[in-house]
Every structure is written in structure tokens, then in C-alpha cells.
Amino acid sequence: MAFLACLLLARGVLPGWRGLHSDFPNYYLVARLLREGYSLDRIYDWIWLQRIKDHWGLDQSLVGFAGLTPFSALPVLPLAGFAALIAKRFWIVASLLFLFGTSETLQRVTRLGRRRIWILTLLAVIPLRSSFILGQMHILVLILLSLAYFFRLRERGIVCGSLVALAGALKVYPLLFVFYFAWKRQWREALSVVAGTAALLGVSYLCFGSHLMHIYITQILPRSMQGEVIDPYSPQAASAAAFLHRLFILEPDLNPTPVWNRPALYSIFYPLWQVAVWFPLFLSIRPSSRDRDTEKLEWAIFLLALLILSPVPSSYHFVVMILPIILAADVLVKRQQYLRLGIVVLLYFIICNVVGPPPKSSAFTFQTVLAFSRLWIELLLWIVLVICVWREAYTPESRKNILLNAIPLTALSGVFWIAGFTSYQHHFSHLEEDIRSRLRFPIHPLLATGVHPLDDGFVATVMSRSGYQIVDQNGQMAWEHTASDQLSSATTRNQSRVIPELADKGGSRITLGDSPEMQIQNAESPAISTDGALLVYIREEKGRGQLRIAHLAARTGAPALLSDAELVREPYDVRDAALTPSGEVVFSARVNGRTNIYQVTPGSQPAVLIADREEVEAPAVSPDGQQIAFRKLLFNRWQLMTMSVASHDERQLTFGDCNAFAPAWLDNATVAYATDCGRGLGLTALASIKVIR
């Protein structure tokens, strides 16, 4: 125990104490945005959140809030007034207290004793180490679920259900315990989970606003449940979703050589996998049993099943496995089933600490199967525990009850499979069309967006492991190397000049040249006229965009800044802007809870250009000024649209169950855009589409 504790201190707590690393800054940023009164509806926008990180000077290369619940930022809110590293150190101390609290809680509901509990806890070496290094939330989820079980034993159903709901507000999967409670006819617990979830949703609506919560529930959560948050093909996730993605889904960058490019097979086998886990699980749980040891095993296998079915588990998720292993070990020790105990503990140790070798190539080989070894061992552990429950819980006299339970479970499983198959068929229905539209790009960045044409090609903003850069169609940096993130750009077709936005601790600035007088401070998202005489950009205040216009004088080398003025005032919260060939400004802005596209001439009032009951954003004007491309939110997915300036007729260009962002005209008949079809949410690739007039 002392050795394991020292190992955790040396490899987890102290490294986490010294630096920010990956995940804690994500929670901290959103908590601080809330604390400082920012508009929060763009926290799931990778580039927008990166810009905030840069402005605040956080020592972290990349940030993103993809897949996380808004509520998960609230535990960090009391720490958001401190500097990020100080806040993380407070969080590490709190996590240690949560871990001690978990041990004490489990000591009161088992007969193992503190030393055995601590040994089993500390055997989760890599999950605990990752949690402290990254500043994750899962130790908090662990103590909440442990306390929920503690109060369940004491027949405090309302408290139990409320704690499960609180854990589910941080990480969604504990909410599935409502089905366990309902199956066990523990109605106080089940109703408390539902009521607690509703109350916590209300808190989230009050804190974050209805618009952000609507975005999370309708756009973020469904993609998270499909396993498309970061990289759906990553062996590091070691989930069935990632494994089947690698088998059956082609993605040119992330999975160029699947075994068989047949998304229909994914639609068949992934819901079937889920049914294959749920069916024996519920069949082994006795609804009427009140035996404490049996209930411990049931909690263990149910929570383990949730981890197995998680579409994107990372190493730190398996901190929560401490609870089911200790509950199972307590029962096996009491029954003196030491062989089973040894098998369970060994499999638990391997799951937590043995990582499969990463595949050496994108091709699917036996090494790829080994890379998912954690998933296979999880499944083996789950089977061992299900057998333990099955043998102990059922007697020959209970076979009739097994049959009675199997009938409704079979019907429910059939309904679930049909719903899953239909859903995934719809999800992948336009994927092949999207893949065919991809632009050839010699590099494979994590994210590519913000295409702007040049005479001999285009430039785009890309995300790499070290940050954001602007690169050309050959993958070469279009701007000189700088330590600042290059988050957006504008180009002049005639001069083939790139004007970038550079973001760092000094804020964002638009760079017209190398000297300080040729930089526009506190400026982002530039757009420039064809002749290079006008530049429009956005200046943010607490997350709300103000649209400004600068007049430039052309000269050899770089344009000179002549004047700079605000173009539109409140109540317009400007999101992006473009210039027409005639010098008018087209922009999207959020006003009174709706985002529309407006048109304005300098010195006049804005007029609505494109208004719809659905959200519309990101206007781009064709070189001849006859068409406007934009994105529209249809059925909670961003789709690419065009509108004729003369007739105002609209045409939908994309139809996938995914998102199209940042349209840009390569010529009068071709629109380039960013797409996250078959990829992580918002982690886009570049594509183009022909526009038929």
C-alpha cells in the first residue's frame, strides 16, 4: 500500500501539481467565463475557446469543451477567481479528499477494512495518475456513486437517487442507473434520479442560459453518444464504437483503410453489441432480491457495463471501476471464493494498467485488435461477474421467473436494436457523398477550416498538436513562424496576400505587415475587399462581437491603415462578416435570441438579408456578387445553403447528419467548406461542392 501510494504521489500528484496539462484548463476556462459574465453559447467552438485561452495566457497548447456537460464546469467555479495553476492545485487537494472520502465510505459498506480497500484503490495506477495529472472530474464522480450506494443500503432512496443525478450531471453515464432502479422496482431511487436530473437541468439553464443548454442537448449530446467527440477511430478509446468504426467506416484522414467500407454493417453490429451486453445483465438482476451481497454484485456488474458501453472511455474513466471491484471483492472474500477473487483483481489490474500496443499503420491488422485489448479484458471481467451473480442469485425454483423476465427483455431488446439500426442508417446515409467531396490536402490536421482563395490555390486554418497555423494548399505555412496562434485569416485575390489574426496573451491582432503600426489590436476574424481597400473585423467584449471597418491605402509591400470605425452597434452580437464586390458588408449577428444575416453599407443602418426561424450564420459572397453561401441549422445540424441575391431563392447543398461550417467561394461555381462528417464533433476536414445555378 505504501509503495502504491508513493507511486501515485510521484507519477500523478506531483506532475499534476507542476503544470496545467490537458483537461483542467477546459473546465477552468468555462467556469471563469461564467464568473466574468461572458456570453457562453460558443464554448463548444474549438477556435473561439482557443482564442479565449490565448488572451488569458494559459500555458496549454490546445483546449476544447467538446462532449463535456456545461454543468461539469460548476465544481471549478469557486476556484475560477485564482490563476489557472493555483486553481488546479486546489482541485488536486480536493481530489485527494474525494479519494479519502471514497475509501471511508466503502469501509462502512464492506468488511474489507481500510488497508485492503486502499490497496484495491491504488491498484488503479494509470487511471488515478491520469486523473491527477489532467485534473479530471472522475474522482468526484466516484465518491458521488459511492455515497449513493452508501445511502441505498440505509434505505435513503431520495438521497441515493439525487447523488446519482449529480454524478450524471458531471458525466452522463450514471443517469442510466434509473433503468437499474426501475428494473429493481426501487421507485424512490428511480424517481429521485429523474427529479434530481430535472432540478440540475434547471440550475444549468439558470447559470448558462437556455440557448447553450439547447445546443448541448440537441447537438452535442447526440454526437457524444455516437462516439464522435474527438477521434471516433482511436484505439486509445478502446471502445466497441471505435473498434467498429475502424472496421467499417472510411475516413480519408483518420481511417483510410477500413476492413470493409460498409457503414450499414456498423448500423447492424453496434446496436447488436449493446443489446448483447444489456440483455444478460438485466436477466441476471433479480427485481425482487433484497440480499445485500447480491445487490453489491449487481451494482458492480451494472457500473462495469456502463464503462464497457461508453463510446469514448479514456484511462481516467476507469477510476470509477474502483467502486465495483471493491463491492465484488467484499462479496467474494465473504464467500471465500478466492480463485474468483484473484481472477477479478488480476483482470481489474490489467484493465487499468496494461495498454495495448498502438497500431503501426492505419491498416487493420492483428495489432489493431491488440490495441483494443482493454475492451476485450473488460468484457471478460464483466462475464466473470455476471456468472457470479447468475450462479448465486438463481436457484432451480427461480427458472420460471427467468423465463418471465426474458420475454419482456427480448421484446425491449428487439425495439432497441431496430431504433439503433434506423438511427445509424440515417446518421451514415450521406457520409459517402461527403467523403467524395473532400479537398485534397497533403497534411492531416486535427481540424481544418477557414478556407480563403488565392490566385494559385487557397489557405486554411489548421489545428496541430502544438496549436493553430495558417497553411496553403500544399501544407506549407502561409505566414512566418510565430509563437502566437493563427486563428483566422483573410486574403486578397489580386495581390495573393494573406492577412492573419494572431492570438496570444496580448489579445488578438490583425497583422497587415511586420511593423507595430501595421497591426490592428483587439481584432479578430478579418475579411477584406477584392481591391484591398476595406477590411472588416470583429472586436469582442465579454464574448459579444462588435463589427468594425478599416479603410486601407494600398502601397508597395503592405497596405497602410487610414481609418478605423465601428460599423454597427448594440444590440447586434456579430459572429462573422464578409464583403461584397461592391463594398457592402454582409454579416451574421445574434439579436433578441435569434441569429440572422444582415447587410449594411458604411454610414447606414443594417437591414435583414436572410432571416429564418432557424439559425443562419457565416455568410460568404461569390466573386461576382450574385450568390451568398451560408450555413443554416436544420434538424439540429448545420447545413450548407446558397441564396440568389436577385431572387432570394435558397438551395440546400449538404444533407448529412453532421455539420458544415465556414463556407467560402473558390470561384463563382465552387464553395469550399469545413465538415465534421465521420469525424469528431467540430474537428473538421475540408471539402468543396459545385453550385448549379
Structural key phrases:
Neuraminidase; alpha+beta; membrane; 22 strands; four-stranded antiparallel β-sheet; 6-blade_b-propeller_TolB-like; hexosyltransferase activity; 693 residues; transmembrane
Would you kindly provide a written description of the structure presented here, covering whatever features stand out?
This protein is of the alpha+beta class and 693 residues long. Among the domains are: 233-428, no CATH class; 432-690, TolB, C-terminal domain (Neuraminidase, 6 Propeller), CATH 2.120.10. The chain has 20 helices and 22 strands. A four-stranded antiparallel β-sheet has the order 4-5-6-7. A four-stranded antiparallel β-sheet has the order 8-9-10-11, with no helix packed on it. The longest helix has 29 residues, at 399-427. The protein is elongated, with a radius of gyration of 27 Å. The model has no long low-confidence stretch (mean pLDDT 92). It is found in: Cell membrane. One of its GO terms (cellular component) is plasma membrane. Belongs to the glycosyltransferase 87 family. GO terms for molecular function: hexosyltransferase activity.
List the helices and strands and how they pair.
Elements (H helix, E strand, L loop, with lengths): L1 H17 L5 H12 L10 H11 L27 H26 L4 H9 L2 H10 L3 H16 L3 H14 L6 H7 L3 H22 L1 H16 L14 H9 L14 H22 L7 H18 L12 H13 L3 H16 L12 H6 L1 H21 L5 H29 L3 H6 L10 E8 L2 E8 L2 E6 L12 E8 L4 E8 L2 E5 L7 E3 L2 E5 L5 E8 L2 E10 L6 E9 L4 E7 L5 E7 L2 E7 L6 E4 L5 E6 L5 E8 L2 E8 L5 E3 L7 E8 L2 E6 L9 E6 L3
Antiparallel strand pairs: 1-2, 2-3, 4-5, 5-6, 6-7, 8-9, 9-10, 10-11, 12-13, 13-14, 14-15, 16-17, 17-18, 18-19, 20-21, 21-22
Helix pairs in contact: 1-4, 1-6, 4-5, 4-7, 7-8, 8-10, 9-10, 10-11, 12-13, 13-14, 13-19, 14-15, 14-18, 15-16, 16-18
